[in-house]
Structure prediction request, 312 residues.
Amino acid sequence: MNNIIEVKNLVKQYKELKAVDNLSFEVREGEILGLLGPNGSGKSTTINCILSLLNYSNGTIKIFDKDMRPDAYDIKSKIGVVFQDVSVFDELTVYENIDYFCGLYIKDRKTRKQYIEDALNLVSLGDFAKFHPKKLSGGLLRRLNIACGIAHKPKLIFLDEPTVAVDPQSRNNILNGIKLLRENGATIVYTTHYMEEAEILCDRVIILDKGKILAAGTTDELKELAKIEEKVTVEANNLTPEYIEKIKELKNVDDAVYINNLLIITYKKGKNNLLDMIDYLKKESINYNKIYSERPTLNDVFLELTGKELRD
Prediction:
């Protein structure tokens, strides 16, 4: 599989701060690469360096096997960028906005018209083509933002948190559209603060913090990095600290935390932990509303590696 992006030994330094610290990775043709990290981890700086929107202190960046430069317009014409902040013209309709951005790359009117229709269909905005942005909901506005960024059918697409603060219907529409873009041959770099999106969409994930790669791989490969083997969650009221301390001493238990009537027990090993916990709760006459077991999630791995929630 060919590499669409190759980043080697990238360094971006602001005086004493290394925003990107000797970063090396590749993005393979036809994949969706998730770039995850807490706020301030270096995601945006890395992307801006790749796009030659920022000068960097050291390293090399190649896109489509060519050196990326600020004036590499032949490369940039094959790239689509959708930033988190919506950037459309209020004076233009939905159709006119997409036409404008597509027209920056596609001069033939007949071809451009077809591309605009394809973009409208991709984000399901056909019924809103004559609307102005001010009349659109937040979710529809984000879908327009995506349509403007991908209408020229770029081979490489950067999507920066495209589903933030949108309604569930728009979110599902956007996620389905991203899958379709990949099926149509696009390579995608995707940033998100929603771990479930990374698990659903991404072929590989890179976890960044303080400008360094902490881990990289498929979601299954990353989950294998988790120190815990199993997590059991119990919904129970009024558990005392004494009970929590007793649970921590049980066989195979790594830790137990009780927050908002949810007891979360993590295990390093063991195969019958859930049954053992049910037996223990029964023995101690502890009433509970719900109990279930799950394997480590990508979020568990993220917390272990960074010590932070993704939105910190």
User: Anything to note?
Assistant: Residues 215 and 308 are 15 Å apart (CA to CA). The chain is about 35% helix and 30% strand. The chain has a mean pLDDT of 94.
